[in-house]
Amino acid sequence: MALLEIKKLHVEIDGKKILNGLDLTIEKGKVHAIMGPNGSGKSTLAYVLAGKADYKVTSGEVLFNGENVLAMQPDERAAKGIFLAFQYPMEIPGVATMTFLRTALNAQRKHRGEVELSTPDFMKRVRETAAKLSIDTEMLRRAVNVGFSGGEKKRNEILQMSMLEPRLAVLDETDSGLDIDALKIVSEGVNRLRSPERSMIVITHYQRLLDYIVPDVVHVLSKGRVVKTGGKELALELEAKGYAEFADEAA
Amino acid sequence: MNAEVRKIKTAAELALVDAYAAAKPKLPGTGALKALREEAFKRFDAEGLPHRRVEEWKYTDLRALMRDLKPLAAAPDAKAKALAKNAGKLLASVESRKLVFVDGAFVAELSDLTPEAGLTITSMAQALAKGDALVTAHVGKVVATNDVAVALNTALMGDGAVIRIAAGASIARPIHLVFAATTPSSMFTRSLVVIEKGARAMLLESHEGASDYQVNAALEMVVGDDAHVDHVKIVSDGAAALHVSSLMASVGAHARFNDFSFTTGGAVVRSQLFLRFDGEGTVANIRGATLLKDRQHADITLVADHVAKGCQSREIFKSVLDGESRGVFQGKIIVRPKAQKTDGRMMTRALLLSETAEADNKPELEIFADDVQCGHGATAGALDEDLLFYLKARGIPAREAEALLIQAFIGEAVEGIEHAGLREVLMEAAVAWLKARG
After folding, report:
1. What average pLDDT does range B98-112 have in this prediction?
2. Least CA distance to B407: which residue of chain A?
3. Which pTM value belongs to this model?
4. CB nearest to A111's CB, from B386, B395, B412
5. β-bridge mates for residue B288, sequence order
6. What was the pLDDT predicted at B5?
7. CATH code of domain A4-93+166-250
8. Cβ(A185)–Cβ(A134) under 8 Å?
9. H or E segment to which residue B418 belongs
10. Rounded-to-integer distance, Cα B273 and Cα B300, Å
11. Closest approach of chain B CAs to the CA of A245, in angstroms?
C-alpha cells in the first residue's frame, strides 16, 4: 500500500483556485521531487498536507497509510508522522529551541501512547543530532529561530525533523537562501534520514538541491496539477529548458 | 452653563465621609500629621471618588465600580491571625524576611523581626502615634500628587511598614510585605521605605485574601544616590476584591531602580506608580505582567517624571486578557527642561485571548527638553496564527501551543527581574494561571 495517496485534490485560498485536481502517490521509502514554476501550487501542497487552516479543500482526498488526513488537526498529522520543513521557519521569541523540541517530541509520543523521553535521554539525543548538523548547544538555548541566519533556520528545521523521525517529510524549498556549504550540511542531514521506512517530498524550484538529495521520482507541477513525471534525469532536463514548455501546456 | 451639577454623593462616598468622622479620634498621629489627614480628606470631600471624566481615571471609573464601602477593618483577632498564618506562600521558595499585615494591621508574631545591621523596621501605626521623625519628614511628601485615591489613603491611613535602610547597607534577604485580608472590610495601609545612599535592598509586596474586601494601599519610597532597589508587587487578591494601590517613589542619582507589578487577582485592580527621577544617571526598569480572566478589570497607571538629566527608564508592560476581562495601561513619561539626555522607552503589549476581552492602552510623552531620546509603543492583538500553526505542525496540541506562546509572552517581561528564584515563582504562577484556564 502506498504511504501517501493524493486523489484529484482541489484547493483554494480566499476564493482563488490553487490546486486543480492534483494526483500523487508516494510509496514507502521513496523520495519524490516536486518542481515547477512560481505559483504552480508547490507550497500550497506542502501546507495542505500539514493542515494549515487558510487553505480550503473543495474536493479530493488525501490518504496517509489509508487514513483520511484532511479530517485531522495539524498536531494529529504530525503525531501520525507527517513533517513539514517550512520554507520560512517561524521565529518564536521567548521559547528556547530545547524546550520547543522537547515539548514537540513528548506531545507526539503522548499522542501515540508512548512514554515521555527522560531528560538525560532527550539531552543526549538532541546533542548528538545537533552536532551532526553543526548546531552548537548555545543555539539550542536560544529562542527558536530568533536571530538565526537563513542557514541556521534551515538547519534547525532538519534538526527538528531528525528528532521527530517522521514517516513522511515534506521539504518546502529547503534550499532557498542557502549558500553551498549550508546546502551540503542540510542535504547530508536529510540523506542520513533516508530509510526504507521513510518517504520524502522535496519541493524545489531549482535542480541544484537534487544533486545532493537524489530523488527516485521527479514531478513537474503546473497550474495546480502534475503535468509530467519522470526519473531524476527530468530535473536536469528542466534545468536546461526551463519551465516555459509546461506553462504553455497547462495554459 | 458651567454650574457644578454633581454634588450628590454616592453611597460609597457618604460611607467614606461617615467612616472618616467616626475613625478620626482614633486614627494615629497628632499635629502636622493630623493636619495632613484633614487636608487630604477635604480634597476627597470636594472631589468625590475619581470617575471617568477625570482623565487619569478615564478607564477605571472608581465611583461606578465601588458600589459601597466595607466597614473599616477591625484589629485582627486570633481567628484572623490563624487564617493569615500561611499568607505569602506563593513566595515560599524565595528566602525572605516576612512582615505580615492582617486586615491592614501589623502582626509582630507572624513577622520576622530578627535584628540586622543597617535595617530599622517599625509599624506605621506606632510611628504615626509617636510622631516618628522619618514619618513626619516624608509621609505625604515624597511625590506630590492630587490623586484622590492617594488622598483617601492619607486621610484614613492606619498601619503599614516603616523601613529604613542605612547608607551603604546591603540587606541580604528580600523584605516581604505580606498583606492578607481575612474579612469583608476595607483597609488603608501606608508604608514608607527609605533606602539611603549606596544601600541595596529588595522589597516584595504581596496582596491576598478570599472575601470581598477593599484595599487601598500606598507605599512611599525614598531612594538615595547610588542605591540599588528592586520592588516586586504581586496582586493575587480574591476574585471579589477591590484593590487600589499607589507607589510614590523619588529616586536619587546613579541609582538602580527596578519595579515589577504582577497581577492575577482581584475583581477591580488599580495600580498607580508615581515615579520621579531627581538625580542624574539613574537607570530604571519598570515592568509588569497582568493575567486576567472572567470579568476582571486591572489598570496600571504610571507616571515617570524625569527631573534630572541623563536618566534611563525602560517600561515594559504585558497583559494577557481572557474572558470578558479588561486590561488598562496608562503610561506617561515626563521630561522636564533640565532633564537633557533622558533616554526613555515605554512598551505595552496586550494579548487578547477572547473576542470579548478589552485592552486600553494610553501612552503619553510630555517632553520639555530638546536633547532626549524617548519613545513608546503599544500593541494589542490575538495570538499569531502562523506561530500557532508552526507549533501544531510539530505535534503540539492547540491548547498547549497557546500556553507555550503565552508563557513566552509573559516571560519577556519577567526575565528582566534580577532575582532568579523570583522569576521562577512568577513563571510558575503564570503556568498555574494557564492550567486553570484549561
Report:
1. 97
2. A94
3. 0.90
4. B395
5. B261, B317
6. 56
7. 3.40.50.300
8. yes
9. none
10. 8
11. 35
